[in-house]
Amino acid sequence: MASSTPRTSDTAEPGATGARRARNRSSTTRRDLVMGEILEHATRLFAERGYDGTTLQDIAEAIGITRPGLYNYISSKEMLLAALVADVTGSTAQMLRDIRQRDLSATEKLRAFVRALVLQRAAAPERFRVLDRTESALPEPIAGEHQAAKREVLSEAEAIIAEGIATGELQPKSERVAALSVIGMANWVAWWFHPGPDHPAEPIADQIAQNAVDMMVSPAGAHADQASPRRAIEAIRQNLDFVERQLAKSADD
């Protein structure tokens, strides 16, 4: 005799769970997109009016939503500063950790780090500039998180340079001064470079990364590197590219 006990919805659960997950993913994606838009408009307003001169009402109007609607995503301007810290300083620290763990020589790690940092700054210069200008006014615990991430960036850069010094690839100089120099070199891009279709960021990143390597590489390390056939071919290509650019420039003149 068949049981009269009502059947559970176990058979329907996998489909229902999948639908819920899909809805959650969609909701998370939409929220991330809206948060990105909020941060973009807030950064622009902070740059134009200053952090203290910008209100949540200003941000809501810039986005085209009501202030109560804005509260569905953020509860204060401090949350936006926290998002800026995570986006600018925190992501830099994570990026450098990832690069330092790659199976590369110290010289190539240095090149990869500087190149990636230049591209990061060129992609979102206004965010970096706003954070730099408001750094002294960051409230706790955001200020502590920001400073901790900056210390980690410096520490990771020092570790790469120390590794290169130990292997003889880089000159035996102060790791801290060298690290601050290459970080500053990359950060400064946010103040002067404006990428566009006719002047992309990649060639600038390549040149600044090469400048950092040239500044740090030891004579013995440079000589050994040039002895590599692959490196020699790369050097020849770079020289040919330079000559071609100079010839094209002369023709235009």
Automatic annotation (TrEMBL):
PROSITE patterns registered for this protein in UniProt: HTH_TETR_2 (PS50977)
Keywords assigned by UniProt, alphabetized: DNA-binding
Compositionally biased spans, kind Polar residues: 1-11
Keyword Hydrolase tagged: no
DNA-binding region: 55-74
Stored InterPro entries: Homeodomain-like_sf, HTH-type_TetR-like_transc_reg, HTH_TetR, KstR2_TetR_C, Tet_transcr_reg_TetR-rel_C_sf
Disordered, as annotated region: 1-31
PANTHER family: HTH-TYPE TRANSCRIPTIONAL DUAL REGULATOR CECR, HTH-TYPE TRANSCRIPTIONAL REGULATOR RUTR
Protein name: TetR/AcrR family transcriptional regulator
Taxonomic placement: Bacteria, Bacillati, Actinomycetota, Actinomycetes, Pseudonocardiales
